[in-house]
Every structure is written in structure tokens, then in C-alpha cells.
Amino acid sequence: MRKILQSLHDRLPAWAAEWLDILVPVFEVTLILLVAWLLMRIVRQGLRRLTSVYALPAHVTSIFLRVVGVLVYAGALLWALERLGVSGAVLWTAFTGFATVGAVAFFAAWSVLSNLFCTLLIYMTRAFRIGDVVELLETGDKPGMKGRVVDINMVYTTLQETGDLRNGTSLQLPNSLFFQRALRRWHGAAAERQAPPPAGVEEHEGG
């Protein structure tokens, strides 16, 4: 392609060659931005399908879409600058600096990012859903942390341990913890028997 453009450039008159030198980079930059935009549309459509199939929460898919958008558009910007004639050394310095900052931020926020990823896995693998009664086991023969799932956010899963949301106790467990230990899940009538009693029942029975 470059050889064809160079051959065309050599055959054109000077005024036309100058316009070609301007139009070709502009066309290339426009094409790069168009490809980035189309790629983001494909990613957005794919996320919509995943959201509908696995019932992913909107805030999780929104964060994932933003991260992908930053990567795609940052790459498109660097590529466009290279097409406009910016020095490769300058671009490489900018890229390595950006990568270094990104790596430091990644390791600093590793625990948060791992929980975000585990949130996606919880929904995609259908490990449990809001309303399920689950128990996180230390070992197979010892009781663990048990309760009804009342909330799954980007970092924590909240289990209602006793009572209700106003009068009772709850556990907030990091989402990554559910992929490090055995998980027991009750179904149907068994789940109802294992569900935490309403507030005041234990005190009444004890009295």
C-alpha cells in the first residue's frame, strides 16, 4: 500500500502531491477511529447479550465497558498519532509510562479487581443468586458462615445471618472468598428450613 501511494505521489504535480500528503493521514486517522468505534459497538452488543443471558447487574457491565473503552480508545489514539507522524520514540515513551502507571495501579487495587472479576463469575457460573441460602465452609465437617443472600455488589456479597435487615445480623463476605472455599447451597424446602428466623423469634423461644 505504501509503495502504491509513493508511486502515485511521484507522478502527481507538486500541488496535488501536497494535498495527498494531507488527505492520506486524515483518511487513515478517520479509519482508525471508525474501527475503534465499531469495535466498541461489538463489545457493547456482546455485553448486552451476556447481561440478558446471565442476569449481570448493570453496574458491573458498565465498569467493564468503561475499562475496555479506555483500552480501545487509548490504543486508537496512539496509532492515530503514529499515522500523523509523531515520533515512534515519543509514542513508545508515552506507552511505557502509561503501562507502568497502569501496572502499579493494577497491583495496588488487585484485591478490588479480583472481587470485581469474581462478581462476574458468580453471575456467569450461577453459583448462587439473591434469595438463596448458602454456607461458606471452612472444612467439610465444621459449620461455616451461613445465611440468605440479600445483596451481591461489585466487592461484597451480603448474607442475612439472623433477623431481618432492620433487626438482625448480616455478614459481608468478599466475592473472591466464594472461589477459595467450599460452598454449600440449600434448595426448595430445605432452604426454607435453613433460612434465618425473623427478628425476635430466637429471643421469644429462649424466654
Structural features, described:
The chain has helices at 2-11, 14-54, 58-83, 88-108, 110-124, 188-194, 201-206, and strands spanning 133-137, 145-152, 156-163, 168-174, 182-186. Residues 201-207 have low confidence and may be disordered. The longest helix has 41 residues, at 14-54. A five-stranded antiparallel sheet has the order 4-3-2-1-5. With 207 residues, the protein is α+β, with helices and mostly antiparallel strands. The chain contains seven helices and five strands. The chain starts with a helix and ends with a helix. The protein folds into two domains: 16-86; 122-198, Roll (SH3 type barrels).
The biggest beta sheet, please?
5 strands, antiparallel
State the CATH architecture of the largest domain.
Roll
In whole angstroms, the N-to-C terminal distance is 87 Å
Discrete helix count:
7
- Indicate the CATH class of the largest domain: Mainly Beta
Main location: membrane
Domain Mechanosensitive ion channel MscS: 112-181
Pfam families: MS_channel_2nd
Transmembrane segments: 22-43, 63-81, 101-123
